[in-house]
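Report of the visiting student (M.T.), summer placement. My assignment was to run the structure pipeline on a short list of targets and document each run. The first record concerns Carbohydrate sulfotransferase.
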Amino acid sequence: MDEKNFTNWILNNIEFIKKDNNDALPRESPFGTRKKNATTICTGDDEKRCVKKFINLETRIRTSPKYNLISCLIQKNMSTLLQAIMCLLYDEILFLKSSRNLIYETSNIRLCRKVNEFNSPYKAIQNYNKTISKDSWRYLAITRNPIDRFISNFIDRCIRKPIKGIKSCNGCNFNMTCFVITEYQYMLKESTTKVMRKEFEDMHFFPQNWRCDFRRLLSNYTIIRYKNKNNNDIEDVVNSLNNIFYQQHVPNTTLTFIRNQLLFSRTMHTTVDTGARKFFEDRLINSPFLMEYVIRMYYYDFKLFNYTIPELQF
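After the run finished, the structure tokens were exported:
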């Protein structure tokens, strides 16, 4: 069975998934939260029970000096596609001459490896400062609804392709309850440690605001908000990207190429239309017990990037 067929099988084998998620979910808050005070989560004395903001996890910068663009990649936020787009905008002629395709330009075979890639915006600017003023750059990042991103990550990392077998996802196998609780505990711990563990799964699940040097540069970025829930939302993201590129004088032929490739193709690891997606989305959204953990993990992603925090109905 090839990877595509295996992915389709595992993500739609609902009975297999349900078997690992048949634990009863408590109706009470693990933190003593009640409906009357649910809106005060992560404020005042309760702040210490929420994952901190602006921890320095990583910054993945891709540049297009031709169009004065700096983009920061955040895993599961169209990062592979944004990386491919930035490679195209770095050198359109080379990209097209090499018969490259935005959809299939994966990290392992990317054309621009170590060419337009930096681990901080300042290093990128310093690299080009002889030809481009530091104030001329346009910063770009794509954020995603924290609930949607968590579910997508859980399915992709813990169900579709667990890299460490049964030890993947904190040893929780396919069980969401186990993973939500243990990952919350890991995040709290890692937000106060001097040396972070930075395992592969963490790089996907840790908060979005821990990246891109947002602590210092959030106000510099143009933030595009992404949900991946339906085709209209994807089209909105593509339109937002192309509006920015148009402002940076990217030619119409390139904008059309980007639009056509992004709207008429979906990457192989997309999980939005699967049985697994529906099952885990329903399980999380209908459980205030699980949802409170997730809110406490991503509280500052909700606040900083203007996503609505779900109501908790205990």
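The chain has 14 helices and five strands. The first strand starts at residue 61 and ends at 64. I thank the supervising group for their guidance throughout the placement.
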